[in-house]
From TrEMBL:
Molecular function terms from GO: 4-hydroxy-tetrahydrodipicolinate synthase activity
Keywords, comma-separated and alphabetical: Lyase
Protein name, as recorded: Dihydrodipicolinate synthase/N-acetylneuraminate lyase
Record family assignment: Belongs to the DapA family.
Highest taxon, organism lineage: Bacteria
Cell inner membrane in keyword set: no
PANTHER family, per database record: 4-HYDROXY-2-OXOGLUTARATE ALDOLASE, MITOCHONDRIAL (PTHR12128:SF66), DIHYDRODIPICOLINATE SYNTHASE (PTHR12128)
Pfam families xrefs: DHDPS
Residues annotated to bind pyruvate: 47, 205
Species per Swiss-Prot/TrEMBL record: Spelaeicoccus albus
SMART domains given in the database record: DHDPS
Length: 294
């Protein structure tokens, strides 16, 4: 049997309609990931609307995540625009009991490779006892991690892998060629769950998978079983069908969770809620994958 890809869910954070943090609903979301068969959860990332949370709110969410995901992997995102803030968030995550963290590149201002290397060196030095993932997402941050830079980051103590979002399969392959075999690469692109493994990724961090883990787990199962090309393509097509409807829209992800009886709440950031037609599409998709609440 082949090694199955790791399936990590990028979990949303629940808010009330007026924007307050809904910690009980957030706890329900984490509990779903803990019991759904996936390998773990990526907490307080892009899907978790991290830029909209205060320092104290991020700490509370981290505590609940570590508690609810006991026995599963729990990667706490500690990224921020400055290393100063990241170092505070690292201490906070460690106090919450985290053993794995991730940090997105700095954002808003353009950063040179030298500045990015200095940023991650500071993170590396502050992360003894933690496993650290570089979070590369240039579409959201404006800063690109080149393969050459990724190779340098992979050599830093405590940095064990990278979550790569919005990049092509060729870029995944370029990263794989630039880092040691033991360096972990997770794609953040749902449509690449099958093909990214073939290009050197060890798994996926999926927002859609937090609401509908079924098709992702099926794809992983088929990869592990050494399924035929046609079977793998069919598994990827099922993932794509879910992505076509849910996509990277946090409001749609939360709607899909709500349809499963989870108090996923609302978005805090400026994202449109699904209209009636979209809601009907989401409901059909949740029902198709056997997750609709009674």
């Amino acid at each position: 049997m082949a090694v199955p890809p790791v399936i990590i869910t990028a979990v949303p954070t629940a808010f009330t309609r007026t924007g307050e943090l809904n910690i009980d609903g957030t706890r329900e979301i984490f509990r779903k990931s803990a019991t759904s068969g996936v390998d773990g959860a990526f907490v307080l990332g892009t899907t978790g609307e991290f830029p909209s949370l205060s320092f104290d709110e991020r700490g509370r969410v981290a505590e609940v995540a570590v508690e609810e995901l006991a026995g599963k992997r729990c990667i706490i995102h500690v990224g921020a625009a400055s290393a100063f803030e990241v170092l505070r968030l690292i201490d906070q995550a460690r106090e919450a009991g985290a053993t794995e963290i991730a940090a997105i590149t700095p954002y808003y201002l353009s950063a040179t490779d030298a500045a990015l290397l200095a940023y991650y060196t500071a993170i590396s030095e502050a992360s003894d006892g933690l496993r650290v993932y570089v979070y590369a997402f240039r579409a959201r941050t404006g800063n690109f991690v080149s393969p050459e830079l990724m190779g340098k980051l992979a050599a830093l103590p405590n940095i064990v892998g990278a979550k790569v979002s919005g990049e092509s399969l060729d870029q995944i392959a370029a990263y794989r060629a630039a880092v040691p075999d033991e360096f972990i690469i997770y794609t953040g692109s749902d449509r690449d769950v099958v093909h990214a493994v073939e290009r050197g990724a060890q798994g996926i961090v999926s927002g859609v998978g937090s609401a509908l883990p079924g098709p992702f787990l099926e794809a992983a199962s088929r990869i592990a079983a050494g399924a035929s090309r046609a079977e793998l393509d069919a598994a990827q097509a099922a993932v794509n069908d879910a992505v076509d409807v849910i996509g990277g829209n946090f409001a749609s992800i939360k709607t899909a969770l709500t349809l499963q009886g989870i108090d996923a709440g609302y978005v805090r950031m400026a994202i449109d809620e699904p209209d009636d037609a979209k809601l009907a599409d989401i409901k059909r998709t949740v029902q198709r994958f056997g997750a609709l609440a009674g």
